[in-house]
């Protein structure tokens, strides 16, 4: 925090623009990105930028020249000409030709972006208020990706780390040199999935499916954000892509699937109330606090309070039902797919025992996991 | 006075144009649907109903991906039986989506289809489907919803794979409001 | 010189308005003899033609790009 | 009603001065009074919306949440946009038209004086309703001034209904204003003032008024559809019922793009009045200016989807809207060339209105260039919904529309008040505004390109420096508007007596009447001055 302030003051206001190139961390331009398409976009951007600069120099040049030379104070006399069709036609045709010159590379780049040739990997991306869900369609793997910047940093109670607001709990891991197709949709309102390094920005629209493609050239971590106003925490749903080699990707897939099973298995052991409360607080802050607030007091008129509420202090079955299945017609989502059984149990336990809600009872993960899998449960019986 | 008469006539015309434009605002809704149908904008599916199958075009293969999307806290388990189907243009394919209501209450849902790329929408012909139909499931109940479709042989060459997604919306509150008001009326 | 612009002149005037350049002489002719409704109708017609022209341009660009 | 009629009759007979007390303002049908009301109202809204902008910039001064909650931040961005568009810029233009159009064309008053009174007095109620939503349960509208569904329907706070009615009222007010201006320009021109002698400000306003009549009802339609979706169970924009959220964007931008021109065409008109005055030379290419304005107005209906390049339009659609948008740059460029050619070989002086007009030409053109960059669809995927867009439209609207309004205000203040302006204070205001506006909005290009999305209350650390610069600039710009307020009040209260022709090079009927303009001008049709015959 202090560091940033010093840099700003040090660079000075007027010098800021010129000092830009001297400081590596300053970005004043588009990223060239790490895909063929993103580099074309960057080149196109620069081409058009320089054309605009050139036109500006000519137009403003003439203007300032007139301002300087044709001042009354220098004794300039007004020449009363006010029409010249030939000149006007010329200065209309020249911009038209320049525009044609711009349209050609623009069209080529756009066609390249829409190249819908066969993709090797399909990833479904679903926007949620306010997180993303990634679903590796042919690999039986899906997960949510939440902002992982701690609340204390946002509320200025802790120092902000390097990737402040651009870090998530689970990266979207993608292989390099692979044609990837993103299928975008939304769970609630319109979001927009944007990763500058890939030059991909596509809206995620509820009820509709959108496509985008990419081939990443270099392994690395690429960060992006939601680009369409989607409600309160629109600024807090970043995207982090981790591009890895094709082999590493296969390895990661296997690990991730094994992990998922371990989490499911963890639900079967017995948890203590303290353990549940501890994990519950973390889950609550991550998944619930945006609306119900860390204090459980909610926002009157928009999001109900949990502190002392009928549901959080009443019958446990109703509480579990609303957390698992959401409430239709409200912002309350169904968390059955978003959280694991132990996380669900923990957060419900937490809500029933925090902020003076002191029921003292624990909801066991096993109890939740039975509710989560009724169909498979039946099939096994 | 002449000017006042002129003014009155002009005002009448301008107010009339306003009313016309207000109507035009609403006319944009059906116009947009027509526009979507013509240009394939937005991947709305308009072709449903019986179709004459003339034998598949075996020289081309099309990958159809089926997707199931839940909307707004829709707790149902909902998914395609086959996630990926290889087909030929002109070939009739049958598949299904399954849905289960895991909650302890009766719920009504509606599935809305969408196709990507949007321009492929007009070439995806669904012989029968459950789209736009209300589906009621009691607590714990499951259902299989069949889907029979053909891809038109006129599908543009460059489209080699397309995605058909169904988004499941929970419309229980709306339905229960409608039902209760119906009950009140019948009483 | 007749005061009333011919159909061809009307078309040219509307075209030049799309282009954004018009000479003083033609403008005087338009406003002396012309009837606004003619210009509005021609304008709408030309707008429609403009749309068609751009659509054709897009088609042509797409066929060149092979998409 | 009785009072209204009496006032009207008093006005029609034209031998009385203004009524006394508050009644003068409530029941006035005098175009000058109503123009004054509009202008003061828009100044009030400009400061209200400006305070909201400063709240936004204060929150964005540093990363982290310091002053406001994200929810309130969204309410601020929404209200700032709505108030500035519908409360500050549009009423200011209507106010200028009310004052100047009758005087420019030699008319005794507006064509429909009573409707004029209503169209103004609706506005305070509309905005009172809109601003009152800030104090309602669930807060004010928080979905951006573009209010995309379903965030503004299914997910909206309950106050959205008040917002919808406020928009309806503003729409009715704008439409009545537009009808009045059209009727005045078409029917009340003094004999000899043919259409082709019409001052350019009247021309651009005439075309703007037609745009208003064409698109405000569409806006009314779209908010009515929202209302029906929210309260009457229809599904225009609700995917669950077979509707389409993207349809909302199409209908909204069908209104929204012409709306952008509604906010800039009258500005073109003002600048086209001011530059010839201070260059002491007739406007270059008057005919082209008129024709190009008409062409921009028509083309503005054909480019709306360039606001939605990322919603997933098929390739052909993207290309269509990209080409059409690029072409619209041609008539706009022609205007800039014409202004420069007007200055070329003139005899220029640089009084405050001219300074604002020159800044308009330069900074609006910069906004035009970033607009051209945004028109290129493949690159727009990177720019869309970032601060680059914010920089672009603020360049077009603040040093564009707002500077033009200020230039017009300074230009005509002597005519309104009878006093010349304190040039030193005017120049101080200009330079503070000019510097402030650039410090505020220029760095936004950089943070946008670097990847900062718009409408976020908090941001990553790499955007911190430029955001801080922008916030400092915003406060410079905001506070310097107090100088403007001071200037206007000082000019109303006193100052050097203004001559009828307050500026040496000024041409036109409005400069033939004494300054301040008498309460009733042109009770008998005037003779056109030599220069306009």
Automatic annotation (TrEMBL), chain A:
Q: Where in the cell is it found?
A: Cell membrane; Membrane
Q: Which cofactor does it need?
A: Cu cation
Which residue numbers delimit the Cytochrome oxidase subunit II transmembrane region profile domain?
22-117
Q: A Gene Ontology molecular-function term?
A: heme binding
Start and end residues of each Cytochrome oxidase subunit II copper A binding domain: 118-255
Tell me which positions the record assigns to the signal sequence: 1-24
Keyword terms of this UniProt record? Copper, Electron transport, Heme, Iron, Membrane, Metal-binding, Respiratory chain, Signal, Translocase, Transmembrane, Transmembrane helix, Transport
Q: What class of enzyme is it?
A: translocase
Q: What does the UniProt cofactor note say?
A: Binds a copper A center.
Please explain the role this protein plays, according to its UniProt record: Subunits I and II form the functional core of the enzyme complex. Electrons originating in cytochrome c are transferred via heme a and Cu(A) to the binuclear center formed by heme a3 and Cu(B).
Name of the protein in its database record: Cytochrome c oxidase subunit 2
Q: Please give the organism.
A: Marinobacterium marinum
The beginning of the lineage is: Bacteria, Pseudomonadati, Pseudomonadota, Gammaproteobacteria, Oceanospirillales
**In the UniProt record, what gene is named as encoding this protein?**
coxB
Automatic annotation (TrEMBL), chain B:
Q: What parts of the sequence cross the membrane?
A: 14-32
User: Cellular component per GO?
Assistant: plasma membrane
Subcellular localization is given as:
Cell inner membrane
Q: Which membrane topology term applies here?
A: Single-pass type II membrane protein
Q: Which UniProt keywords apply?
A: Copper, Membrane, Signal-anchor, Transmembrane, Transmembrane helix
Which GO MF term does the entry hold, naming one?
Answer: copper ion binding
Q: Which Gene3D superfamilies match?
A: Ctag/Cox11
Q: Which InterPro entries match?
A: CtaG/Cox11_dom_sf, Cyt_c_oxidase_assmbl_CtaG
User: What role is this protein assigned?
Assistant: Exerts its effect at some terminal stage of cytochrome c oxidase synthesis, probably by being involved in the insertion of the copper B into subunit I.
- Report the family membership: Belongs to the COX11/CtaG family.
Query: Any idea what this protein is called?
Result: Cytochrome c oxidase assembly protein CtaG
Q: Which organism is it from?
A: Marinobacterium marinum
UniProtKB/TrEMBL annotation, chain C:
Spell out the Pfam families in the cross-references. DUF2970
- Show the stretches that span the lipid bilayer: 39-62
Q: Which domain of life is it from?
A: Bacteria
Alphabetized, the UniProt keywords read: Membrane, Transmembrane, Transmembrane helix
Give the protein's recorded name: DUF2970 domain-containing protein
Q: What is the scientific name of the source organism?
A: Marinobacterium marinum
The organism's taxonomic lineage, starting at the top: Bacteria, Pseudomonadati, Pseudomonadota, Gammaproteobacteria, Oceanospirillales
Automatic annotation (TrEMBL), chain D:
Instruction: State its location(s).
Output: Cell membrane; Membrane
Q: Where do transmembrane segments lie in this chain?
A: 37-58, 78-99, 120-140, 160-188, 200-227, 247-271, 283-305, 311-334, 355-377, 389-413, 428-448, 468-492
Q: State the superkingdom.
A: Bacteria
Entry's Gene Ontology BP terms: electron transport coupled proton transport; oxidative phosphorylation; respiratory electron transport chain
User: Where do the Cytochrome oxidase subunit I profile domain residues begin and end?
Assistant: 25-532
Output the SUPFAM superfamilies linked to this UniProt entry. Cytochrome c oxidase subunit I-like
- Keywords carried by this UniProt record: Cell membrane, Copper, Electron transport, Heme, Iron, Membrane, Metal-binding, Respiratory chain, Translocase, Transmembrane, Transmembrane helix, Transport
Question: Per the record, what are the reactions this protein catalyses?
Answer: 4 Fe(II)-[cytochrome c] + O2 + 8 H(+)(in) = 4 Fe(III)-[cytochrome c] + 2 H2O + 4 H(+)(out)
User: What is its pathway?
Assistant: Energy metabolism; oxidative phosphorylation
Signal sequence segment: none
Job description of the protein: Cytochrome c oxidase is the component of the respiratory chain that catalyzes the reduction of oxygen to water. Subunits 1-3 form the functional core of the enzyme complex. CO I is the catalytic subunit of the enzyme. Electrons originating in cytochrome c are transferred via the copper A center of subunit 2 and heme A of subunit 1 to the bimetallic center formed by heme A3 and copper B.
Q: Which PANTHER family would you find in this protein's record?
A: CYTOCHROME C OXIDASE SUBUNIT 1 (PTHR10422)
UniProt-recorded name of the protein: Cytochrome c oxidase subunit 1
Gene encoding this chain?
A: ctaD
């Amino acid at each position: 925090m202090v560091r940033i302030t010093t840099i700003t003051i040090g660079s000075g206001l007027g010098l800021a623009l010129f000092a830009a190139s001297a400081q590596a961390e300053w970005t004043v331009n588009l990223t060239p990105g790490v895909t063929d398409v993103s580099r074309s976009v960057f080149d196109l951007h620069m081409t058009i930028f320089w054309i605009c600069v050139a036109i500006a120099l000519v137009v403003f040049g003439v203007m300032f020249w007139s301002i300087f030379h044709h001042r009354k104070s220098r004794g300039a006399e007004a020449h009363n000409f006010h029409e010249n069709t030939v000149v006007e036609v010329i200065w209309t045709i020249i911009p038209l030709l320049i525009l044609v010159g711009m349209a050609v590379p623009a069209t080529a780049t756009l066609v390249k972006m829409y190249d819908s040739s066969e993709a090797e990997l399909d990833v479904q991306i679903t926007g949620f208020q306010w997180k993303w869900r990634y679903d590796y369609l042919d690999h039986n793997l899906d997960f949510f990706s939440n902002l992982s910047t701690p609340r204390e940093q946002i509320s200025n109670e802790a120092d902000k780390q390097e990737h402040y607001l651009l870090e998530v709990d689970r990266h979207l891991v993608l292989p390099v040199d692979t044609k990837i197709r993103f299928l975008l949709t939304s769970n609630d309102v319109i979001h927009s999935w944007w990763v500058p390094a890939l030059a991909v920005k596509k809206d995620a629209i509820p009820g509709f499916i959108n496509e985008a493609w990419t081939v990443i050239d270099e392994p690395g971590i690429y960060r992006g954000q939601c680009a369409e106003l989607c409600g309160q925490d629109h600024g807090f749903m970043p995207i982090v892509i981790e591009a890895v080699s094709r082999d590493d990707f296969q390895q990661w897939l296997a690990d991730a699937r094994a992990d998922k099973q371990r989490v499911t298995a963890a639900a079967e052991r017995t948890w203590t109330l303290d353990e549940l409360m501890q994990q519950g607080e973390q889950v609550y802050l991550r998944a619930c606090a945006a609306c119900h607030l860390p204090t459980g007091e909610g926002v009157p008129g928009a999001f109900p309070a949990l502190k002392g509420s009928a549901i959080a202090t009443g019958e446990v079955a109703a509480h579990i039902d609303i957390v698992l299945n959401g409430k239709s017609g409200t912002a309350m989502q169904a968390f059955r797919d978003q959280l694991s059984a132990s996380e669900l149990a923990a957060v419900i336990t937490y809500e029933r025992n925090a902020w003076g809600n002191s029921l003292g009872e624990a909801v066991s993960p096993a109890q939740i996991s039975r509710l989560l899998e009724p169909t498979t449960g039946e099939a096994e019986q | 006075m002449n000017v006042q008469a002129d003014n009155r006539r002009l005002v009448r015309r301008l107010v009339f144009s306003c009313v016309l434009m207000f109507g035009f605002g609403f006319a944009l809704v059906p116009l947009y649907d027509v526009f979507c149908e013509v240009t394939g904008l937005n991947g709305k599916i308009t072709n449903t109903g019986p179709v004459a199958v003339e034998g598949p075009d075996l020289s081309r293969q099309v990958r159809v991906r089926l997707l199931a999307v839940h909307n707004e806290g829709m707790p149902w388990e909902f998914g395609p039986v086959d996630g990926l189907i290889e087909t030929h243009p002109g070939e009739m394919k049958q598949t299904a989506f399954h849905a289960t209501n895991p909650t302890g209450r009766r719920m009504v849902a509606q599935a809305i289809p969408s196709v990507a790329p949007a321009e492929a929408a007009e070439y995806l012909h669904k012989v029968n489907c459950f789209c736009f139909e209300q589906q009621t499931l009691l607590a714990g109940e499951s259902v299989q919803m069949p889907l029979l479709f053909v891809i038109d042989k006129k599908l543009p060459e460059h489209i080699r794979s397309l995605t058909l997604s169904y988004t499941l919306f929970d419309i229980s509150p709306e339905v229960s409001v409608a039902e209760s008001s119906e009950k009140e009326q019948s009483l | 010189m007749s005061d009333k612009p011919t159909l061809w002149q009307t078309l040219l005037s509307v075209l030049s308005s799309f282009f954004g350049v018009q000479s003083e002489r033609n403008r005087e002719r338009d406003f002396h003899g012309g009837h606004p409704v003619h210009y509005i109708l021609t304008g709408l017609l030309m707008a429609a033609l403009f749309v068609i022209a751009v659509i054709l341009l897009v088609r042509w660009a797409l066929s060149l790009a092979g998409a | 009603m009785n009072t209204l009629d009496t006032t009207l009759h008093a006005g029609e007979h034209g031998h009385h001065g203004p009524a006394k007390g508050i009644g003068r303002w409530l029941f006035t049908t005098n175009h000058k009074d109503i123009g004054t009301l509009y202008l003061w109202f828009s100044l009030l809204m400009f400061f209200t919306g400006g305070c909201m902008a400063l709240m936004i910039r204060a929150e964005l001064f540093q990363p982290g949440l310091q002053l406001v909650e994200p929810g309130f931040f969204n309410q601020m961005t929404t209200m700032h946009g709505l108030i500035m568009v519908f409360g500050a810029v549009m009423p200011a233009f209507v106010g200028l038209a009310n004052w100047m159009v009758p005087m420019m064309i030699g008319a005794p008053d507006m064509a429909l004086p009573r409707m004029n009174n209503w169209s103004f007095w609706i506005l305070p109620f509309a905005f009172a309703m809109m601003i009152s939503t800030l104090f309602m349960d669930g807060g004010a509208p928080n979905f951006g001034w573009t209010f995309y569904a379903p965030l503004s329907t299914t997910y909206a706070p309950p106050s959205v209904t008040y917002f919808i009615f406020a928009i309806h009222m503003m729409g009715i007010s704008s439409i009545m204003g537009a009808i009045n201006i059209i009727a005045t320009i078409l029917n009340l021109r003094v004999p000899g003032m043919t259409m082709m002698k019409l001052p350019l400000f009247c021309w651009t306003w005439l075309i703007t008024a037609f745009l208003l009549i064409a698109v405000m009802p569409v806006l009314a339609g779209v908010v009515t559809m929202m209302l029906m979706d929210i309260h009457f169970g229809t599904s225009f924009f609700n995917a669950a019922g077979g509707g389409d959220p993207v349809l909302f964007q199409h209908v909204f931008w069908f209104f929204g793009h012409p709306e952008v021109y509604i906010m800039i065409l009258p500005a073109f008109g003002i600048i086209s009045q001011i530059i010839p005055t201070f260059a002491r030379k007739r406007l270059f290419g008057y005919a082209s200016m008129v024709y190009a304005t008409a062409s921009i107005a028509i083309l503005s209906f054909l480019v709306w989807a360039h606001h939605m390049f990322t919603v997933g339009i098929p390739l052909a659609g993207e290309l269509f809207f990209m080409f059409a948008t690029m072409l619209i740059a041609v008539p706009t460029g022609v205007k800039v060339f014409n202004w420069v050619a007007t200055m070329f070989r003139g005899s220029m002086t640089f009084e405050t209105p001219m300074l604002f007009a020159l800044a308009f030409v330069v900074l609006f053109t910069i906004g035009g260039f970033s607009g051209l960059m945004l028109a290129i669809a493949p690159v727009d995927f990177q720019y869309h919904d970032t601060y680059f867009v914010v920089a672009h439209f603020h360049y077009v609207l603040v040093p564009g529309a707002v500077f033009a309004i200020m230039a017009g205000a300074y230009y005509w203040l002597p005519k309104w008040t009878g006093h010349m302006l304190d040039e030193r204070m005017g120049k101080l205001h200009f330079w503070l505004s000019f510097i402030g506006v650039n410090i505020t909005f220029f760095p936004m290009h950089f943070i946008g390109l670097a990847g900062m999305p718009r409408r976020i209350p908090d941001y990553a650390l790499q955007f911190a420096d430029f955001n801080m610069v922008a916030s400092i600039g915003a406060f410079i710009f905001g506070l310097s508007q107090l100088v403007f307020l001071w200037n206007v009040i000082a000019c109303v209260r006193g100052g050097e007596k203004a001559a009828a022709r307050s500026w040496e090079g000024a041409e036109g009927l409005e400069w033939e009447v004494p300054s301040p303009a008498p309460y009733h001008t042109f009770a008998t049709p005037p003779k056109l001055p030599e220069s306009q015959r």
